[in-house]
Amino acid sequence: MLRKIFILVRTLLIGAGWTYVFLPVVNLVFIALWNFSFFSASSWHTIRDFWQIGGVIKTAPDYLFLFMLIMVIPLWLWGWKRLTRVDYAAILLFPVNAYNRHIINKYGHDSKRIILRNLKSSREAVEAVKNQIESIKPESPREVKNIREEIQKKIESETSKF
What we know:
The protein is mainly alpha-helical. The chain is built from seven helices and no strands. It has helices at about 1-35, 40-50, 60-85, 90, 95-105, 125-135, 140-160.
């Protein structure tokens, strides 16, 4: 539940930031190209009056203006969706990671360390070890008893020295 709340708050904050950047940029583009301001009521009244007196879209710039007006909302939603997928922790930690890569390249490339990779044992290796163990096994219990007695004697002789 807490994770869902965190995701919702994160999405809303990203949306607020994206809207704060997107709307002024779009407004500047419309002012530069068509002298139309999203935040001006008089610009919207001009469009309304044009339609009410029976205005007709005839030229390519008029079609482009209408297309751009329609595409503002889908473009805003698309940008918001893309920005929610960005890993901001990676962006914030980029300087640290870049410094670590620099130090590793500077001092670590001639390292005498041995890096072991892929240590998973294969079935053939396991079978080979099992075969070696079975070949070492004594053939009779009497040999086992003799080996144990010899080991016990060596342990006793070593402990008696102390």
